[in-house]
Fold:
Amino acid sequence: MMWAVTLTLGLIVIAIGATVGSFINVCIYRIPWQKSVIWPASHCPRCLEAIEPRDNVPMLSRLLLGGVCRRCGLPISIRYSLVELLTTCLFVLMYCVDVVIPNLDRYGSVPVDDLIRLAYDATLIAFLIVATFIDYDLTVIPDQITIPGMVIGIVAGVWLPTIRSAPSHAITHADGFWFGMIGLLTGGGMTLAVRTLGSLALRKEAMGFGDVTLMAMIGSFVGWQFSILSCGNGTLP
Ligand SMILES: [Zn+2]
Structure:
């Protein structure tokens, strides 16, 4: 790609990453309590003042406000900004892997296929960040995250069979479905087996069922070929 195109797309990826990161914060704090992630708009937990658009710019607003609520001075956790920064960095990294590196020597048209793959991979990253922080806070991984994730992973794979990276890159819609479905079953199944054996060996619950659905979601996105790899890394000591 031309460097100007690479840079422009990169800046767009940064803006999307920061915005998604901000929405991820809303998801982390609301989904476990069955609250809507759309309504009401973000507000200060103490003075209940709605957060103005100028105070809601990812990462920058907190710095400009000196880390406190504009109205009541309640300190704003640094974690909001760190989640936004993490999301932005991972999106940029994924942009390099999916779009920049495969197109280093290609000039001319914008690689639409690679940008669609980036959107798909970034969706998985976003779901994983939400799941990770909720798991860290409350040691649960809600089905409201993993089940929609599985559906998106499978449906996108049927709709655009080439969306997954090689070797899970399919040609036909049927293969796109089966790569994802077998990925879901192997990811979930292998984790379930480890959980069952671990629980028998330790005589207590070795890991939560949320880990099983989480690996099933990852499998539905990456396909069975990568699913086996990530299971090996994720569940074995
Ligand atoms: Zn306040």
